[in-house]
Amino acid sequence: MTTGRGGRGAALLEALANNLSNRPGLKEEEPQSKQFSSGASLGRGSLLAAALKQSGETKPSLLSEPAQSTLSTPSIESKPIGRGFAAMKALLQHQQQSPMVGRGMGVSAQTSSTSLYPPTSSQASPALTAPSLANQNNSGSQDLDEISRRLGQVEVQEQPRRKERERLPTVTMIGIEGTPLDLSANYVRVKCSNPGVYLYSVQFSPPIDNRKLMMKLLIEHRDKFPTLNSFDGNIFYLPYKLPQEEVNLTSTRKTDGSKISIKLSYVKMVPPEQCCHLYNVIFRRIMYILQMCQVGKYYYNPNTPAVVPQHKLEVWPGYITAIKEHEGGLLLLLDASHRVLRTETVHDIMEKSYHLNPSNYKSDVFKMVVGCVVLTRYNNKTYRVDDILWDSSPMECFQLKTGESMTFEEYYRKQHNIVITNPSQPLLLSKRKPPKGMPPGFKMDPEFLCLVPELCYMSGLTDDIRSQFTVMKDLAAHTRVTPAQRQFAMKKFVNNVNSNPDAKKELAIWGLELDSSTVSINGRLLPMEKIIMGNKEFMAGPQCDWSRDVCRNELVSAVSLMNWGVFYLRKDAPRVNDFIRCLQNEAKNMGINCLVPFRKELVNEKIETLVQELRNSISSKVQLVVVVNPTNREDRYSVIKKVCCVEAPVPSQVIISKTIAKPDKLRSVVQKIALQINCKLGGELWSVPIPLQKLMVVGIDTYHCPTKKKASIGGFVASMNHTCTRWYSKVCIQQPGQELVQGLQICLTAALRKFHAENHFLPEKIVIFRDGVGDGQLDVLADHEVKQLHRCFTSFGEYTPFCTTVCVQKRINTRIYSREKNGEMANPPPGTVVDHTVTRRDRYDYFIVSQHVRHGTVSPTHYIVVDDGIGLKPGQMQRLTYKMTYLYYNWPGTVRVPAPCQYAHKLAYLVGESIGREPAECLSDRLFFL
């Protein structure tokens, strides 16, 4: 017999039916009655079996009727429910006992074997009465009394309700530094005339787990509830309060015609500011009313695409909407979005690859298609391609849920009126992702979907397309929107909502109304920073660009280039000669002493030849190796970095031949290369004034492999001097897809030791900029990574520095505009700060615009202080953050995120994409990854 999970009660009942001849653990010489003397060690099923055995009763058949004679001992043929549940139930039915509680189940003698319900509070401790055993011997009665006593102590607790998130107080952190600015943002104020939203819990009797069935049962009462789309499976949200606290309804289940009781119980009223999740659902409904199509996370208009026929592309215009409670109240984030789609299908790519490379086209198609997202236009849904089924075709059959068998070709012809032209093409395989909130291990039904290549359109842009200047230039005409154009798109959306009767009715039900204009903000412009070089100091300028000055003045710390080598092919020899000559001339202007390098001319383009030359030439005296590659091959680049970062550690510079091929652009290219080389050798380019003393600034970022086949890499970079111009770097390798850095404690401990070795003291203040963390991980970041930081301080004895952790978010949809005198919207200048109105209500955060953008709309960076240990004033914290955007040495200007974050990103990307292993420790004190 196979029992359920555990099933001790059923096993012992079966053994009782077989005279206990085969019970596990029973010795032949040991009497059976002795086995039950220690009933405390057995389950409730065994206790009942012992009581019945001692009272002379035998176990009835589970398949027999209750009136059947109990003198017979039939065999058990049906599979009992887990832990002897069915056997105990049949036994109790035979003895006409009152309801008993099994392990985790409440069982009623009147309930059929197929109807199982969770216990209620009244079933938690039922009393056990046994009138049929009243005349039995004393031993049986004592055993039953013991059973009653123990079962009376059993408590079945109700499943705890989901704990509501505590509403935190409003956080206001406004700075005073800087010049006032008149700004606006892409937020529209949402007005609500209703006092709030009323919550009702919904219970079905008998219970129902299928949400779709719940909705069908509620639809029968549509006349009473006009907002059925606000039911989430447990809670019914209503814009008004019902007359009664409890409402009882009855619906008919169409599958079997049974009556289902529905009970609505009033829970509470929630103010509008706490109903953002509901209002976002309402706006999704409005998007469908406006005939918008959801592609990915956002909504687009497929009826008005902008076609780029020369590149086989089209652009769908759309909108990004999100309602949240901000410091300025309930606001709707509204921004224009664009979805770039390719007019070629996967089938077109397969045909093109076959004509170009017939012998190996399958491998080429696999690289170009697998991992990409495709769009099926017959339903406007996107799918990720996980594999290609080369042995399958649209003529194969699959089984519908109704049990009917049908071919893919017949299905598309009948369901979508689409005729598949190529019946021999392979099929694409897509694995369905479970919805958010599902338990681990949950699988969709069906788990995989098969797609026809000629119906799947490629979406997004490949690296090959992005590298084509003309393609990106033509696309930018449609996707690079100016602030004035974004403002016009927002007004157009608000007018469409207010002028559409159905959309306006949907908002009116909940008492919502959109303001006609965007919010106004009083922002500030931080003071311009001073750039300090070796022999000159100058202001950064209104556009924060000092590319000319950095190449005409001496660097803060210039490293002489004495012993270095160049590796190249024979055909690139003239270009290499021009490069070396130009580098020596430009290096003098920067204060760098550059000698003539040793040269290694490669006999062929094989990677093995290059690796052998590198290994033979690199020694402890070599400062730098420069490799001129004929093409931009990733495998060749990766091999060079593996050799120069792990096997024979030395700073390396890889140059593509065509980059130094044009004489008119050679000088500007060489200047940038010279700056990179100086950084890789440990030099410093420029600095800005840092007022804080004994300060360490840390940047952390994580690299994830797009295909999830490689490990995730955590990049860690920390400053080593007062001016934050020298950096220490370290990486930690994690599981694929893991965001939060597990080895952060080890990285910071190593950085503190290096800082002490360089300065002979430990930092008193540590500011950590953590990049790449979304809103859902902010609390985990504060509880997980911050605690790792504080734990590592204990390894230095009585060392307790002040530590502040700031989360850096650059992939945001917030846009900030500057109001011009003529009323038009423009990009704000670099250094613009916004720290109120559109910031989070319950967090210490601020926005900074640190870049100057000539085309399109500038994107601010969102900074969230998750742990403020230093306690700087808001203006001081904002100025320190802005100063850090000046110190990224790969660009003579400000960057979007603080320099340590960008360094950590470059390090993690290099290790994750090319190296795959931890770089040598001797390279950790220089920016070898630029």
TrEMBL record:
Residues 345-460 form the PAZ domain. It comes from the Eukaryota. Residues 66-76, 132-142 have a biased composition (Polar residues). Residues 111-122 have a biased composition (Low complexity). PROSITE patterns: PAZ (PS50821), PIWI (PS50822). GO terms for biological process: cell differentiation; regulatory ncRNA-mediated gene silencing. Residues 624-916 form the Piwi domain. It holds the Pfam family PAZ. Keywords: Cytoplasm, Developmental protein, Differentiation, RNA-binding, RNA-mediated gene silencing. This is Piwi. It comes from Biomphalaria pfeifferi.
